[in-house]
Structures are given as structure tokens and as C-alpha cells.
Amino acid sequence: MQRVRVGLTGLATVLLLIGVASAIFTSADNEEPVVAEGASKPDVVANMTDGVVTNTAAAPKDEPIAELGIAPRTAETPAPEITPYPIPEPK
Q: Where is the secretion signal located (predicted)?
């Protein structure tokens, strides 16, 4: 009987700790992100490129293992076309 009581007490303690941790992390997720004055904007930084956009959608997908880098390609494939980044016209 003592083993059952100790086991159930330990189980209840673990469940209580999980509940408390879940409540803490849930309240942390609901907070607004802090944005410093003059800092870079994350949505702008995420969309930045080096000025060259490559079009890989037109490349044939016949060797999926080679695309993952596991095995070398068996056939010579042409280099992907490089499309220059569109420059907005001045207003």
C-alpha cells in the first residue's frame, strides 16, 4: 500500500509541475513582442535579398535524392536562370 501511495503522489506531483509550466509558457506567448525604437523591422528584414532572384521552379525534378544532396547527379543539368531583382520606378 505504501508503494501505491508514493507512486500516486509522484504522479500527481509531475502532473502539477507540467500544469504550472504550461500555464507559465501560455502566458508568455500571449505577450506583445518588444520593439525597440529605431530597430530594424522584422517583416522588412525577412524579405531582403542580395538583389538576385533565382527561378528554381522551372528546373526538372527528376532526381530527388540528388536534390537533397545525398547522391551526385547522373546527368548534366543547365544552371538555373538568374532573374534580376525588380527595381521600383521612382514616383
A: 1-23
| Distance of alpha carbon 63 from alpha carbon 54, whole angstroms | 19
| Cα 86 to Cα 58: distance, rounded to the nearest angstrom | 19
What grid cell was written down for 49? 535579398
Give CA torsion, residues 68, 69, 73, 78, to 10 deg.
80
- Exposure of 65 in the CB half-sphere (CA atoms within 13 A): 5
81 with 58: CB under 8 angstroms?
Answer: yes
Strands (E), the chain: 52-54, 82-84
Report d(CA 78, CA 55) in Å as an integer.
12
Kindly report, residue by residue over 7-43, the tens digit of the pLDDT: 999 999 999 999 999 998 888 777 676 777 777 776 6
Average pLDDT over residues 66-70: 78
